[in-house]
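[Automated response] Your request has been received and processed.

Submitted sequence:
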Amino acid sequence: MRAGGGPPGDGRVVEQLEDPSGRQPAVVGHPAAHGRVRVVAEPFDAWRGVVVLDTRIHPELQAEGWARDFTRLVQSARKQAGFNVTDRVEIVASVAPELEHALREFKTYVTGETLAVRFDLVAKGALGSHGNAVEEEIDGYHVAFVVTRMAA
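Generated structure:
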């Protein structure tokens, strides 16, 4: 979006953004005033430009990442166990409290990606002494789970 009708790269304000949360956005090398960011088009040599990224990890994004990491661990366990790609499974897991909310929130994603007909989260130690239990960590949080192939 150009303001004033000038050509791109003419130094005019292109877009002004406000952070709806009231927090002050940060632009590297340019402190923002009163929660506003001005995006300005400046001339560059060919093939060069500037990208401003928000690198904060919001709770929703963190939860999705943990669910995807858990899914990856389950898929790896399926492969190690020699399951067929189309085999339906049951997952019983014991995870750190920090991960429980994420796995409950993204349960549909986990079950869909792993072909799990059942996915239960149980208390620590409730897995018993399953010989095929997988013990791992996600971002330093303990995860233990058992993947069982369902009868056809």
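Summary generated for your ticket: The mean pLDDT is 79. Strands lie at 13-18, 26-27, 30-31, 36-40, 89-95, 116-121, 134-138, 141-149.
If you did not submit this request, please reply to this message.
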